[in-house]
Design brief:
One of its GO terms (molecular function) is transcription cis-regulatory region binding. This protein is elongated. The chain has three domains: 5-57, Orthogonal Bundle (434 Repressor (Amino-terminal Domain)), CATH 1.10.260; 62-159 and 289-317, Response regulator (Rossmann fold, 3-Layer(aba) Sandwich); 161-288 and 320-326, 3-Layer(aba) Sandwich (Rossmann fold). By secondary structure, it is α/β, with parallel strands linked by helices. It has helices at 5-12, 16-23, 31-44, 50-57, 74-88, 102-114, 129-138, 161-174, 190-205, 219-232, 243-255, 289-305; strands at residues 62-67, 92-97, 119-122, 142-145, 155-159, 180-184, 211-214, 237-240, 265-270, 283-286, 313-316, 319-321.
Length: 332
Amino acid sequence: MKPTIHHVAERAQVSKATVSRVLNRNPQVKDEIRERVLRVIEELGYHPSAIARNLATNKTNMIGLILPDITNPYFPVLARGIEDAAHRLGYALFISNTDNDPKLEREYIHKMVEQQVGGIVLISSTLDEQTVQDLASLRTPIVLCDRLIANTPFDAVLIDDYKAAYEAVSFLIGKGHKQVAHLAGPKNIQSAENRKLGYLHAMRDANLEPFVSVGSFTYESGVHQMGSVLEEYKPTALFASNDLLALGAIHEINLRGLRVPEDVAVIGCDDIPFSKMSRPLLSTISIPVYQIGVTAVQLLDDQMKGVRSGTKNMILEHKLIHRESCGGVENK
C-alpha cells in the first residue's frame, strides 16, 4: 500500500500538520522533530502529492519558462541557469518554445496560468501594448529576460544592449574602419532594436555613413544578409546583432574569396560556444547568459513569496571580447 501523510505522522508520533510544515520547510519546526519526520519519510518511501500540497497551501512548486527559439544556442544556456536556480529553490520547470510566434506565445502563457504555475520567466518575441495589458491582467508573477518595457509591473533582467553595440562599433572605428555595416535582428525584438540604435549613434558620433541590413537572428539570415551587404556597400568591418548572424556572415565572406579579418573585420554579440570554435575565432560581446537566468528565477521567487513590492530591473554587465576576427590576439 502506498504510504500517506497519515502513516508518516503516526510513525513519527507527530500530527499531520507537523509533517506538512516539515515538507514546506517551515523554520518554526524544531530540528529534532524535523529530523525524525524526514527519517520516517525516507524509511516509508513517502512521496507527497504536489497537487494536494498546492491545494492545501494555495501555492505551486512549478514555474514556467517561455523561449522564442530553442534552436538558438543562446537560449539553452539561459534555460540551464533558470533550471539550476529553480532546482535549488525547490521548483520544477515547465518549458515552452514559441518559434517567435506571438499567437503561440500568448497561448502558452494562458496554458501555464491554467496549470497554476507560480510564476513565468518570459523571453518574448513581441511585447506590444495589448500583450502587456493582457499579461498584467493575469495576476501571475512574471519576469522578463532580454526585454525591458517601461511603465509595466514586470521585473526584468538584461544587459544594456545599446551600450554594448555602441562599444563594439566604436572599437571597430577606433581600429581605423570607416565603412562599418550592421546586420540587425528583427524589428519587433527590443534587444535587436537597441543594438541597432547603438550602432547608428556610434556611426553618427564618428561622422560616418551607416549601412543596416535587417533580418532574423539565424545563421542563414547572416549568410543572406551579408551577400546583399557585400554587393551594395563593400564594408571593411561588420557588427552583427548576434553571433549566429556573425558566423553566417563569415561563411559568406569566405565564399566570395574575401578574408576575415584582413578584408572584413567582424564582431558578433552573445558569446555563444560556437564563437570559440569558428575560424577565425569570433570577436563578440560576452553576455552573462547563465547568470541572467539565475537572476530571473531569484526575482521570480521574491515575487511568488511576496518578500518585496514594486518593479525591479537588473542590468548585468557585458564585456567586449577581442578575438581573431578583428585582427587581434584571442582574448578568452
